[in-house]
UniProtKB/TrEMBL annotation:
Similarity comment: Belongs to the diphosphomevalonate decarboxylase family.
EC number: 4.1.1.33
GO cellular component terms attached to this protein's record: cytosol
Residue stretches making up the Diphosphomevalonate decarboxylase-like N-terminal domain: 12-167
UniProt-recorded name of the protein: diphosphomevalonate decarboxylase
NCBIfam families associated with the record: mevDPdecarb
GO molecular function terms noted in the UniProt entry: ATP binding; diphosphomevalonate decarboxylase activity
Native species: Secundilactobacillus mixtipabuli
GO biological process: isopentenyl diphosphate biosynthetic process, mevalonate pathway
């Protein structure tokens, strides 16, 4: 095990959860309350390079070309400490990261961000982790990052401790022509982070226990839908699961929501399209941006329909993306 003598670069894609993670059993280790399942997206990714250097007195983090303050780089430095502990090294690191995802608008930039950081930092520290162990490491940065190590359809097994909570691929290179259309309604930072929002749900929503039961059932249903390439079952179950998650924010104390007026309008449009016989469903994470799940052949016309209404917003078609790549 030797520290790399040049920067190591990793590229990881973000993912959209079809069955969501919303709540931790262990907030320190980030052990979730339920299994979750996602699709990795080809269009949104993070590229991060890391080098541990003897001459550095502190970690230096450059994010999209600008050096982050101590406060803004705190989570990254905490994560680097984990890697240093694992590799038994003390050198500080130079980290350069570039995000090809609208940051913190519910497009899970933390997923691709911590997955890429886990890949680059571990390899730069001289660790040669397999992908399961990489997903366990990424999990310590952000729960959704656990799944971004793999491509295609990915499950995150809840587990009960650090060893047993990891992601595994369900179908890394799906032959299924699916698309997810991201409607970027706002690229602003979200007001209530997923960390705060989910903890509030665990502690205060009277529906939390029911959410766990429903999402475990959804997990099995979506897995079956993927195996049978059953689009209606996949879309319907994913949409229901997303709304159940958002029912937790509405039923938390204090209550809040990630919906904005445009998200509600777009949800109605999805339902109207379905009534017109165009199969599509929606999902939404911890931000107002809606993601529309559809079959590849319909993606272009559905995207045009939304673009016509949301003229000044980005409407981006994405397809199943690949797992992490790490350059030597
Ligand atoms: O891992 P975090 O803190 O980015 O939380 C992710 C929460 C959701 O995106 C809403 C759901 C999920 O499973 O990705």
């Amino acid at each position: 095990m030797t520290i790399a003598t040049h920067p190591i670069t990793a590229k990881a894609h973000t993912n959209i959860a079809l069955v969501k993670y919303w709540g931790k059993l262990d907030t320190q280790l980030i052990i979730p309350q339920n299994d979750s399942l996602s699709m990795t997206l080809d269009e949104f990714y993070t590229k991060t390079s890391v080098q541990f250097l003897p001459e550095l007195a502190t970690d230096k983090v450059i994010f999209d070309g600008e050096e982050l303050s101590d406060k803004d780089s705190a989570k990254i430095r905490t994560f680097l400490n984990l890697v240093r502990d694992l590799a038994h090294i003390t050198y500080r690191a130079k980290v350069e990261t570039k995000n090809f995802v609208p940051t913190a608008a519910g497009l899970a930039s933390s997923a691709s961000g911590f997955a890429a950081l886990a890949g680059a930092a571990s390899r730069a520290a001289g660790l040669n982790l397999n992908r399961r162990d990489l997903s366990r490491l990424a999990r310590r940065g952000s729960g959704s990052a656990t799944r971004s190590i793999f491509g295609g359809f990915v499950a995150w097994q809840q587990g009960h401790d650090d060893e047993t909570s990891f992601a595994y691929p369900i179908d890394e290179q799906p032959t299924w022509d699916l698309a997810v259309i991201a409607l970027v309604l706002t690229a602003k930072q979200k007001k209530i982070s997923s960390r705060v929002g989910m903890q509030l749900a665990v502690e205060t929503s009277p529906f939390y226990v029911e959410w766990i039961k429903a999402s475990q059932a959804d997990f099995e249903t979506v897995k079956t839908a993927i195996q049978n390439q059953d689009f209606t079952l996949l879309g319907h179950t994913s949409e229901q699961n997303a709304m159940r998650m958002h029912a937790l924010t509405l039923s938390s104390d204090p209550n809040f929501t990630y919906f904005n007026a445009d998200s509600l309008r777009a949800m109605k449009m999805v339902k109207d399209l379905r009534l017109q016989g165009i199969p599509c469903y929606f999902t939404m994470d911890a931000g107002p941006n809606l993601k529309i799940i559809c079959q590849g052949a319909d993606a272009e016309r559905i995207a045009q329909h939304f673009q016509a209404v949301f003229g000044d917003k980005q409407v981006l078609i994405t397809r199943p993306g690949s797992g992490i790549s790490i350059s030597d």
